[in-house]
Amino acid sequence: MPQEIERQYKEILRQYVMRQTEQNLYAGQNFSRQLIQKNIAPEEVISIHKAALEEMFPELPMNVWHSFDLLIEMMIRYGLAHAEHQSLLEQQEEIKVEMDLAANVQRTLLKTTVPEVAGLEIGLVSVPARKMNGDYIYFLSDDLKNAGVAVADVIGKGIPAALCMSMIKYGMDSLQDATSDPKKVLDIINRIVEKSVDDDMFISMFYGRYNVEQSVFTYASAGHEPALFYDAQKGEFSELHAKGLLLGVVPNVTYAQHEVKMEYGDFIVMMTDGVTECRTDEGFIEQEIIASLIHSLRDESAQTIVDTVYKELEKMQNFELRDDFTLVIFKKTH
Amino acid sequence: MGYRSSVEILTEWDIVAARQLGRNEAKEVGFGTVDQARITTAISELARNIYLYAGKGKIEIERISEGGSFGIIIIASDEGPGIPDVRKVMEDGFSTSGGLGAGMPGVKRLMDDFKIETVLGEGTVIKATKWIR
Ligand SMILES: Nc1ncnc2c1ncn2[C@@H]1O[C@H](COP(=O)(O)OP(=O)(O)OP(=O)(O)O)[C@@H](O)[C@H]1O
Ligand SMILES: [Mg+2]
């Protein structure tokens, strides 16, 4: 094979030395593509060039031949750098495949079903910035009178965050009871997290529970973004604040718990900081812009609202998500 | 065992001497210009590691033949600190100059066979073989 390459190269070189046309150069470049595919190192190429030249112009002075030896020596490192680059690319490909598999496992493992309770519409969108999601949603419901939702956000993103999620899931799984008070839920999860994670891993979490009979939304927060409450009658938003430390900092925390009565058309927007900290190159997207966007969609279904908000914010950020993005809406429909 | 010649590595200049020896040997054994340059580069890397990390040691070049094939072995040995994590060192991108294709993985690529023996606190012996194609 090398002999064949040498022969072909010599022909291309001969043509070019004779005529110097663009076509000859084009042929040369196409040939180099073949060389790369065949893993011919740059020092080899120079050696092929030298050999071809020796055959065509044997009478060239010695200095010229010596100069090629220096060039060959110089090109060895380029060849090595190229080979290393090649192998790093292959490794990257392997990691990508592995990440895809892991993301799949995560999706299956952390799957949660949106509950159905009378008079309440639930909309949910959760999109990871990278492959693995550091935001987590867990629904806890008796599919009758209570619909609870946990919105958690591990500070940081990617794999470490994703690994942390399963802990929350198993903590929530152990609860079972959809009538549990939000402050109690946070207390239990906090104890689990505090025991199991490093000091430098923090998780914020919001837990809200809607009760059908009383039309009341009860909530508590562990250092999470405040939820937004839309009052349909007044046509305005207010923030649902609740005091409470991030999960996993100290074992004993008393979480504040509040409630809000929901009327027809009211809705509650729960989110992670991937929503509130949406950024464009010019800076953060103003909270008011997001609020007015949601306001303009107030008559749509809960799912349409979250989907549309996601699409709009994605567009505003030039389709670059900097953080995992999660938005949940509880909307009272009758 | 074939004919062996060697260079002690004590100063940076000895790296050049080791290169020179390697190139001469490679030429005499019958390697072409490109392979001569590859062998020399491998020697350069190994000698520089001895100089930088072990302080002193030696590079030996042994001529070998087997069933009508000829080649050489570079033996780089020192009584330095040894290498704690060989697997890491053999990973692409680990060397200090990462991404330039140099270092031990580069040596492995340049040669046909690469063997390393290292004991912490006792030293390192690396044998790299190349055959004429
Ligand atoms: N003979 C040796 N004795 C002890 N440690 C060594 C020896 N050779 C290499 N090492 C260790 O292995 C590491 C990797 O060596 P390698 O030659 O691959 O890369 P580098 O010397 O760090 O950088 P580069 O060679 O690319 O400039 C070194 O940083 C050094 O810690
Ligand atoms: Mg080195």
Automatic annotation (TrEMBL), chain A:
UniProt keywords, alphabetically: Hydrolase
SUPFAM superfamilies: KaiA/RbsU domain, PP2C-like
Residues in the signal sequence: none
Domain PPM-type phosphatase, chain residue ranges per copy: 121-334
InterPro entries attached to this UniProt entry: Bact_Sigma-Reg, KaiA/RbsU_helical_domain_sf, PPM-type-like_dom_sf, PPM-type_phosphatase-like_dom, PSer_Pase_RsbU_N
MF term (GO), any: phosphatase activity
A Pfam family this chain is assigned to: RsbU_N
Name assigned to this protein: PP2C family protein-serine/threonine phosphatase
Organism: Paenisporosarcina quisquiliarum
Taxonomic lineage: Bacteria, Bacillati, Bacillota, Bacilli, Bacillales
From TrEMBL, chain B:
Annotated Histidine kinase/HSP90-like ATPase domain residues: 34-133
InterPro entries: HATPase_C_sf, HATPase_dom
Stored Gene3D superfamilies: Histidine kinase-like ATPase, C-terminal domain
Pfam families: HATPase_c
CDD domains documented for this protein: HATPase_RsbT-like
Record protein name field: Anti-sigma regulatory factor
Organism: Paenisporosarcina quisquiliarum
